[in-house]
Amino acid sequence: MHVRELAPPLLGALFLCGCSSATAARRPAEPGRPAPEGRAATPRAAVSAEAAPPPLRLPCEADDLVGCTNGCADHQIEDCVTLGSMYLGGAIVSIDVERAMTLFEKACAEGSARGCLRLGDAYHDRLARADGAGGASGADEAALYWHARACHAGANLGCLAAGRAYLHGQGASADPGRAAALFQRVCERGNAHACVELGHLHAEGEGVQRDDRKAVELFTKACKLGLDEGCLRASRSGDVLPPRD
Description:
Elements: H1 21-26, H2 44-51, H3 65-73, H4 77-89, H5 97-109, H6 113-130, H7 139-152, H8 156-168, H9 176-188, H10 192-204, H11 212-224, H12 228-234
């Protein structure tokens, strides 16, 4: 499958007084009169524009089809992602996978990590539905590509998905070392699932040096982050570790 090439992916008040020559020199020129020598008059339109900030525009709601459609048309990129999710889910509007993926790709090209992530997930889901029957040729490569872009844009879940793809050789040759690096990046940011994945690699010596103590530390961190699997892996007896502080 050929992944489409993306385009790369804003004075106070004036007090007039007396007949002081100094004050007169500071006084702005009146309409129709030239400004004092050495000073340019400040256009009133410019002052008004600076004093009026643009109105705040909140993202559209997940079930607001009209709002998201209008927002996306007005170049509100995250609204495009939410709109794409509607077309992918089918609860608000009829399912249109191709339109959803086009919206995600547009948002990703504009720098939306969420758009890249949703597009990678869409390709991954397409691959899963194909059940290896060849109906999703190239979907694994595309899923890895978009998840890696999401990771680069700052999405922890993109790094996690890309790491798992490298670990299992989905979309690229298996590379446990690269997978470990991605898991470590987001484990340090507080992603419990990445900590567990990295813990497994240390326990097995795959892609990193085998270190049972480090593995337990990672499982314990995942436990403290609220993931039960981390608690079970960290406890040699199989009991959940209390407390998770």
